[in-house]
Amino acid sequence: MIKDGSDLTDEEVLQNFLLDIDCLDELVPWTKRFNLFDVLKISRTEIRHSNILGWLLTPNENHGLGDAFLRAIIQCVVQEDDNGRYNVLDTLLMDFYSFAVYREWKYIDLLLVSDTEKFLIAIENKIGSHEHEHQLKRYRRTLETDYPSYKKMLLYLTPEGEDPSDCDNWDVLTYRDIAATLSELQNTMDLAPDVSLVIGNYIDVIRRDIVEDEKLIEVCNKIYAKHKRALDLIFEHRNDGRTQLADGIKATLTTLTEEGVICASPFTSSNTNFFVFRTNEMNHYLPPIDTPTSSWGNEYIYSYWIAIRENQLCGVFEIGGWNVPEQQMQTMQKMIDLLKPGDKRRENFRYKRLFRTGWYKIEENDSFEDSVSDCVRKVVKDLLKKETQLLKQMEMAERTEA
Question: What is the mean pLDDT of residues 304-325?
Fold first, then answer.
């Protein structure tokens, strides 16, 4: 029997949810249907979407669409053209089979070029990220330099039609347009079964993961309204993406320790923002003190650590100034002389950051764990390079003093 009332314990609200678990059956159309893109774990991977779109937009590819998808997308853009950028007849009567499709040409996600028609189409694809500073203007200038005599159609593709920064030159294209166009073609063209499966899966992924599926939203809101407390509890205690990222960083640092590259600290803290390690080389210059009274409340007077910002990592080298023995403090002063000669707060400090790496992006890949590991290794490699440079400078300074 399902109890009712707002004074239920957490355990009771979870029991009620389990007793009414059949309410989740309404989600079966979205959760139980086979989808190739889920199997490959690329449903929200931007570069994979660009690859699929590049395939579909190539008229001479083996999908059986011919130029129908490319033509339909161009027609969609032309129909929405309120600025008179395109001559309707000239644009829609082009030989679309003459277009060649390029991926990541000078960092542009998709570039379609027809030397016959002297026409190009550039598509900048954004799903989980936003435009970088002046990115679209840079791409436009590159195209103007490399294709000065070509007519140009510049498309900014986003889930819901985000406005491009260079709105005077770039047109908006949405994933709603992509899904609607593909759905119409799938229903009207006689496609091979395997191609139809791929296109159907792709449409489902767009509607489920890229743009808002109104029916799915309605079902989810109904279930959430009925079992809000239980679902909030589950969400609060879930193993989320941040935890997965933290686990990946810890695992890589542990592996690097086993390989003898670094000395990782035991990961006992629940903090998922900072991941500390040290090196044998720096331990020689700044050895641990006898008591756990350093700036960090342990025996170490320096730290290497990795910080997280969204899908990026950076590395930091920092020294701590509390309770440092005289000899180690002299070594710290030499490091400050080399790296921060203008620093006036040289002794009475708790923490002092001496160098850091840039921010390294966790690249989209088929394996999230591999992507995190690759990024961590890049950060550590950069830090160790800077360490080597610093310690060489220290040795040269010591020889000069001698």
Answer: 90
